[in-house]
Every structure is written in C-alpha cells, then in structure tokens.
Amino acid sequence: MNSGSLRAGLGLRIYTYTMRKLHxxxxxxxxxxxxxxxxxxxxxxxAYLGQKPPSDTPKIFAxxxxxxxxxxxxxxxxxxxxxxxxxxxTNNSWFNTVNxxxxxxxxxxxxxxxxxxLIEHYYAPTFSMDGQTxxxxxxxxxxxxxxxxxxxRKPGGGxxxxxxxxxxxxxxxxxMPTSSGVAYVGSNAHQGKRRDFSTYDFCQLKMSATDTTIxxxxxxxxxxxxxxxxxxxxxxxxxxxxxxxx
Length: 246
Description:
- The chain has 246 residues and is mainly β.
- It is built from 2 helices and 18 strands.
- The strands form 4 sheets. Strands 1, 4, 5, 6, 7 and 8 form a 6-stranded antiparallel sheet that branches. Strands 3-2-18-17 form a 4-stranded antiparallel sheet, with no helix packed on it. Strands 9-10-11-12 form a 4-stranded antiparallel sheet, with no helix packed on it.
- A hairpin with a 4-residue loop joins β15 and β16 (212-216).
- The radius of gyration is 17 Å and the shape is globular.
- The two termini are 23 Å apart.
C-alpha cells in the first residue's frame, strides 16, 4: 500500500520498527490511509470501494467484489493517493501464473466502475512515491533471478508495457519503496537459496546509481520461519507484518 498498498483480509500485527527498539502494538488493520491522500473521497461514503471503513477489528475486505467465479484475491493491493483507483491481483492457484491477473476498480462519474483487467501474469502492485509508476512482480519465468517490474502512466491515460526495474540473484518478494529512498523486501538476502522460502526475512534494500545493498532487519521482527508478507509506511514509522507463517 505505499500510496495505499496493503494486504487485504488478513489479521495482521503492527510493528513499529526503529533503529533502537521494536514495539509490538496489538492492533489489526485491513487498510492504511495514504499519507498524501486527498480528503474528498476518503471521507465520503464511497471511500474504500463503498465498503465499511477499516477499524481495529480485522475483517475480510469486499469479498463479493474481488472474487471472480473460481478466482481469489491474494498478496497485496494498492489504492491511489486520491482513493479513486484500487488495484489487486487475482488467481485460481497459488503456484501457477497462467490465470494470474491484476484487476482494478476506478471511481468515475460518482461511482465505482469495474473490475477491469490491467495486466495478466503479474501481481503485488505498489505505487511509486509520485503515484506515476506501479511496481509489479511476476512476468515471464526466470529460474536464476528475482525481478521487480514497472509500468508508467501514459499522458493520455492508461499504462505502459512492463519493463524490468530491478533484477537480482536473491529474493525481492513484495518490493516496497519509501519516501527516504530505502526499499523493503522479503528476501533470503545472502543466506540460503533463493527458492528456499524458509530463509526469507524482512530486509532493507538501499539503492544508488552504482550499487544496491541488502540486509535483514534486526530484532525479533524476523523469525526462523517465512518472513515476507508486510507493509511499510511511506515515512517508515511502522510496519504491518503477517505473523506465524510457515
């Protein structure tokens, strides 16, 4: 959910992570309001696809809207800053990308329209800080690398074809940028094999014109199990993570 990206329908614990300490807050959320969101739609009854606004009690979000016949919504979703676009991935299998699609709803003419298909065989949408780029995962199979893809808004509307934004020989699961320029991923980093998800931790990714470095976050936020599903606030003031995964 940078720019509104978040994971739907999960009971998640919020961790506020700082360099010195980690606070566990016993709060569950479904969506976080983008920091730069315009207030007009967000404060109206049409916000959040016209669904009940989120609270401290986690609830499945828009199940009848997002599920299409034999498909299910998964991974994470993304609201645009003005709250008028909502992107989410669907599939009918966890490990087959044949029917994987990113769908979206758009608020126009005083109502929500959709769902429409944005792109096939990709998932995990999240916005850039300026809202002009969507970062995605998936695409054509690569057995040697992990990749983050990007699509850009066209001046006249619509989106460009995907191109590779980042490619590495370690995991880049659920890549999420922040305002500081630091990004976060779930990754094996420099331990274990890229396809061994038991070695994945929540990691920090620092990129420059000449180098990219990755290191896992310190403290109890990482466990011996699969640590990958998360959301980071744009200002890095807190993280929302999926706990007790195997």
